[in-house]
Amino acid sequence: MKRIIILFALLLCFIKATPQETSTKSDTLRKNALNVFMNASDYVRKEIPYVNYVRDIKDAGVYIISTIQRTGSGGNEFSFFLVGQNENAGMRDTLTFVTSPDETQDETRIKEVRTLKMGLMRYVAKTPLSKYMSISFTEPLSETVTSDKWNSWVFKTSFNGWLDGQQTYKSTNLYGAVSAARITKDWKVNLKARYNYGIDKFDLDTQMISSENNSKSINALIVKSISDHWSYGGTVNVGSSSYSNYKLSGTFMPGIEYDLFPYSESTRRQLRLLYTVGYSYVVYMDTTIYNKTKENHFQHSFSASYEVVQKWGSIDVNLNYSNYLHNWSKNNLSINGFMDLRIAKGLSVNFGGGASLIHDQLGLVKGGATTEEVLLRRKELATQFQYFTSFGFSYTFGSIYNNVVNPRFGNNGGGGMSITIN
């Protein structure tokens, strides 16, 4: 115990003996810099050093909420919502930039920094640091814009294969996909074809056990914008699945959607109500528990989706109900969601989960599944429900400033202390 006390005392002496930085012009500027609350990477902190990155939103003169959504070309649209508070109360800005699917991570983060610099300028302009800022424009402008020879169509192909094994086990999986998409202000068209094959083999000395999984599908989604709140369209799906006992499956589901908020605000908040009604046709691989080898039915579904991103966190909740029209007892009700809430200074909690009530499994195989198919989840099994859940929290305390980046010995260090439980 004495050794521990002596060691602790020596540590305190060392900390007190560490030279403290004297007040300089640089230190004065740092104190007068704009306080910003955002989820900033080390790269952003290095490239935009003339603001203070604070840990608590209440200390910020401006807080920044960022969102990402997929574009029609397969890239991403990044949006930054800058909201002034304290000395900048009432000031608001929204900036976006778009990346293409073939851009590197470095190209993306360069665009991110450029966009953030432009957005922060009018806030920095109100601080003493503004006299040291300069703005330049380096690219000559063309008077004309070339037309898009692809007419907004984007095509993508992918193929993946993996093999692993040992002396008594071998697994092989193949996956391929082809897609075409055209996203404009008035139309959304997604076409995709997929193929998936997997086989597992187990050598148990006395016998060899193998289990296969095979599925193919062609999917089409076409949506037409009516207004900033309404749209209509439909989906067409054709495919087969050994897991679901589908030798051939086809569905056609037209529908209409209403968003309580304008689609132009979709990166910040959505409340979408979607109703679809259509027709399905199925030919089964094996006779079902209802003694069917094929059947066709009309069906409909209703879904509600709520998404919001604010300074206090984010919420994403989805509710879906569907049933076959020939027998309303054959239905499915599911809900899932995720919340990330900042409830106090330095303290945030997150939790999510989902649950489904399942009464629409028309394709279950009459003979059931083998032990191998059950253990490897190669066949759909009868169930009346399913669920999942997750939760966690994080707490951070210490200095409100978080400006310094020090990559020595990796990026495990940092100001303050954090405790995370997941």
Q: What does this protein structure show overall?
A:
There is one protein chain. Among the domains are: 26-134, Double Stranded RNA Binding Domain; 153-306 and 360-380, no CATH class. The chain has helices spanning 2-17, 25-32, 42-47, 105-124, 371-375; strands at 34-37, 51-53, 62-70, 76-84, 92-99, 153-166, 169-183, 187-203, 208-225, 230-241, 246-259, 269-284, 294-310, 313-324, 327-344, 347-358, 385-397, 417-421. It is mainly beta and 422 residues long. Strand 15 and strand 16 form a beta hairpin. The radius of gyration is 28 Å and the shape is globular. 10% of the residues are buried. Residues 413-422 have low confidence and may be disordered. A 13-stranded antiparallel β-sheet has the order 6-7-8-9-10-11-12-13-14-15-16-17-18, with no helix packed on it. A 5-stranded mixed β-sheet has the order 2-1-3-4-5.
Could you name the key traits of this structure?
5 helices; 18 strands; 422 residues; Double Stranded RNA Binding Domain; mainly beta
Summarize the structure.
This protein has five helices and 18 strands. The protein is mainly β and 422 residues long.
